[in-house]
Amino acid sequence: MPVLSTRTGAESETDVLCSPGRGDVLDVVGIGFGPSNLALAIALAEYNQEVPEADRVSARFYERQPAFGWHRGMLLKDTTMQVSYLKDLVSMRNPCSRFSFLAYLQARDRLVDFINHKTLFPSRREFHDYLEWAAEPFRGAVDYGREVVDVVPVEEAGEVTHFQVLTRAGGQQAEPAVQRARNVVVAGGLRPRLPDGTSLSDRVWHTSELLGRLETLPAGPGQAPRSFTVVGAGQSAAETVAHLHGEFPDADIHAVFARYGYAPADDSAFVNRIFDPEAVDHFYTSPDDVKEMMFDYHRSTNYSVVDIELIDELYRRLYQEKVAGKQRLHVHNLTRLLTADSGDEHVRVGIEFLPTGRRDVLRTDYLVLATGYRPTDLHGILGSVEPILCTDKGRVRVNRDYSVESTLPGPAAIYLQGPTEHSHGIASSLLSNTAVRAGEITKALVKGLVRDIDAPRAPALTAAAPV
Ligand SMILES: Cc1cc2nc3c(=O)[nH]c(=O)nc-3n(C[C@H](O)[C@H](O)[C@H](O)COP(=O)(O)OP(=O)(O)OC[C@H]3O[C@@H](n4cnc5c(N)ncnc54)[C@H](O)[C@@H]3O)c2cc1C
What we know:
The protein is an alpha/beta fold. Helices cover 28% and strands 22% of the residues. The chain has three domains: 10-189 and 376-451, FAD/NAD(P)-binding domain (3-Layer(bba) Sandwich), CATH 3.50.50.60; 192-265 and 303-369, 3-Layer(bba) Sandwich (FAD/NAD(P)-binding domain), CATH 3.50.50; 269-301, no CATH class. The strands form five sheets. Strands 1, 2, 3, 4, 5, 6 and 19 form a seven-stranded mixed beta sheet that branches. A five-stranded parallel beta sheet has the order 8-15-9-10-11. The radius of gyration is 24 Å and the shape is globular. The two termini are 22 Å apart. Bound molecules: flavin-adenine dinucleotide (FAD).
C-alpha cells in the first residue's frame, strides 16, 4: 500500500493513493481542494507517516476547477499576502513539515533572496506558486474538474454509517458518480456576492474573474477601454482600482462606494491576536452577545478595509493628477450603486449621491463589482444531508472540532472548513488558522475512525515528496 513518502527509498516515487475498488468506503472525502483541504491532506499524510499501516487514513478530494487554483482572477501584479508566510499550510501546526513556505523557498532556490527581501508578506503570485507546489504531490488523491453535487446519508439500524458523495464532471447532464465515505470535509470556499438587481455579463464582472476578463479584451489600436467603474471599498476594490489605473493609462477609472473613504485594515499586533488559535476557543465558548461584540469590535481586521500602503498610493495618484490638471481617477464616495444596464457598447451605471439623493448615470466601458463574497451555499453541496443537520437560528450547529451536530447518531460525520464564522469566529474563512484547524480535524477524524476500527478500510492517503 502506498504511504506518505519521504525523499528516501522505494516510497519516494509514490504519487498517491486511494484507488476505488480496494475497500470502497473511504475514511474521508474532501469537497474542494483549496488551501483548507490541501492543509488537511498534508496533515493526514503526515499522520499516516507516523502510524502503523493498519491505522492509516484513506482520503480522496474533489475539486471542480480543472487544476489547482487559488483566486486566480485576483493574482494581480504587485499584490501581496495579508497574512504572514509563517501562517502557511503547516507551520503553525508542524514547523518541521516539509510542506512549509520555507521548504518551498528552498526547493525553488530562493530562500536566501527571500530573507534579504525582509518581508513577512510574499506576493500573492508567489504564494499561489507555493500552494501549487504543495498540492502537486497530492495530484493522485484529487479528482480535478469534478464537482460534488450532493451528499446522501446512509442509515443502518438508526445510525448513519457513511455517506454517498455524488460527483459530476462535464456539466449538468453528466451521470453522477458515487463515492462512499465515512466522513466528509466540506471546504468549498466563498462565492461572489453581487449587489441586488445586478447580473454578470461581458461588460459587468465580479473581481473574482478580473484577470481572465482583462485577458480577453480586444488589444488592437483604438480598441483599449476608455473607462472602468469599480464598485466597492474593500481590499479587492482598491487593488482593482490601482491595477486598472496602472494598466490602462488612457482610461478613466471611477471608484464608487458608500463610505466616506477607503478605511485602513487593522493589523496591529494586539488586535491581530483575534486570529490566534486561542481566539477560536474564546469565540467558540462565548455567549451570542459576546460573539457579536467581538465581531463588531474587530470587523476592521478583514471586512471592507484596505492595506494602508495601498490607500496612501491611491491618494498619491489622485493628488498628482490634481497637480497635473488631468484627472482620470474619480472617487465617488458616499455614493451607492442603483442600476447596471449592460449594452453592446457600454454599461449605464445608475448611482446616487447619498447626502443629497442626487442621481446620475455613468456611461462606462466595463463595470467591476468588487462587492465581496458570501460563504459556501451548504444547501447546494449537502442537499440530502441537510434534514439530519442540527440548526440554530437558521445556521448549522458546529462542534468545536468542526464536525456538524447531527440528529442521527453514528460514526459518520460532516466537517466544515470555512462557513463557521458564527461558531468559530472571524478567522474561519481566512488562512490564519488553516494549519491548526487541519490538525484539529485530523485528530477528530482519527478519534472517530478508531471507534469504527472494525470497518473495512480503503488504502491510505499518501503524498510524494514535493519537488
Ligand atoms: C482575492 C483574495 C485574496 C485573499 N487573500 C487572503 C490573504 O492574503 N490572507 C488570508 O488569510 N485570506 C485571504 N483570502 C481569503 C480566502 O478565503 C482564503 O485565502 C482561502 O482561499 C480559503 O481557502 P479554502 O480552501 O477554504 O477556500 P477556497 O480557496 O475558495 O477553495 C475552495 C475550493 O473548493 C472548490 N469547490 C467549491 N465547491 C465545490 C464543489 N461542490 N465540488 C468540488 N469543488 C468545489 C472551489 O473550486 C475552490 O477551489 C483571500 C480571498 C480572496 C478572494
